[in-house]
């Protein structure tokens, strides 16, 4: 019995390494192992392609130049502008809508909530649409460098304050807290857009007048539901959704006084902008795949001189590679899906024009039937390369010779430096608009007109006029007067 037990134990210890080497169950395979070769086609296509160089960020000097025209805007408006800059196509469409209809009706459009917010301020949306390359660059910077963008805004505000050009006014309130500067609307009903020259405002006081001026006030509405958390959590903070709560982001909100002043002047309960679904701020991250005209960006050098934008050109090359990998599929830069089906320049999709679509069906295949063609060409005219046939000479009543008779005369024989009338008639004339102008024969047209006039003129005999007879004097000649002297 003991011997049998010993044999069993010996057999178990000898085969123990084989048991350790047994394969594990299928559900315990490590997740980071590469898939089998036959499953590689199931992987996403973008993982199999070369992505190329990564996106190149803006330097602090470049950000200062880009943000200098708007760094002194009130925080609620500036927060909406940064988010709306990631939807450049919608900004252009909103600007066209505001130019045609005004701010009324923007709330019912299908743009992003940030674009609808800035559409309430015509000067702002018009500026962004007019400088669309700058707007695109600002949106790209905000998508990839939101912290650097906030730091640049604070740096520019400190420069303006140190130069003595940034202080509270009846239009806006400037608040400082822990070395952070916040700019809030001061009036409870209106918000004012500042106007200033970046080349002066950040460096010195102007020689005359204030450095910052304000135009007409625009109404404060529920759409201004974004703000900045300056210094929150020990960092630069960022854009956050206030929902028009009195406490802002919480009890430590030191720059939320404008909400308390203006909250009673807006309709909080029934306004579409006050909604829990706007808690998450949505940005269009595909804006980084849009190209930018570098020449329109190089002009922004008011703060730092001699700053080039080589990274913009590098990002354009990267965007072109990404767009080419789409194999002609449209890229939705607007973020709303199905928009922008008309072609646009500079590798950017166009946007629909509601005024044109109301009168023209752009899906009609016959819309391009006559586009780019010469509408002056006529079927009854020969091609420009063929010699037109001479029409029959009309019957003439005068004794002038026709061109064939002129060629037989010695004085009209072909001589060096002289052309016959026939060659002058057939010589092609230069044209300005249509090549068919060379088929015009002025001599034949003149002869045809003269013959027509002669045939239509009535034959009149010329009466013989007699010589004029001297007129008889019916009254005697007046007596001769003296020289006008006095009588003695």
What can you tell me about this protein's structure?
α3 (60-67) crosses α9 (146-162), α5 crosses α7 and α8 (132-144) crosses α9. The chain is globular. It has helices spanning 2-14, 16-20, 60-67, 75-84, 88-101, 113-118, 122-130, 132-144, 146-162, 198-201, 257-262, 294-297, 310-324, 354-359, 403-407, 421-426, 442-456, and strands at 172-177, 180-185, 190-191, 194-195, 213-214, 218-219, 226-228, 239-241. The termini are far apart. β1 and β2 form a beta hairpin. Helix content is 32%, strand content 5%. By secondary structure, the chain is mainly alpha-helical.
Q: Can you give keywords for this protein?
A:
488 residues, mainly alpha, two-stranded antiparallel sheet, two-stranded antiparallel ribbon, 17 helices, 8 strands, 5% strand, globular, disordered C terminus
The number of distinct β-strands equals 8
Point out poorly predicted stretches.
Answer: 16-50, 335-350, 365-391, 417-437, 482-488
Helix-strand makeup class: mainly alpha
Shape: globular
What summary fits the major beta sheet? Answer: 2 strands, antiparallel
Strand content: 5-15%
Helix content: 25-40%
Helix and strand run: HHHHHHHHHEEEEHEEEEHHHHHHH
Strand order of the largest sheet: 1-2
Q: Roughly how many Å apart are the termini?
A: 200 Å
Mean pLDDT: 73
How many helix segments?
A: 17
What is the rounded Rg? 43 Å
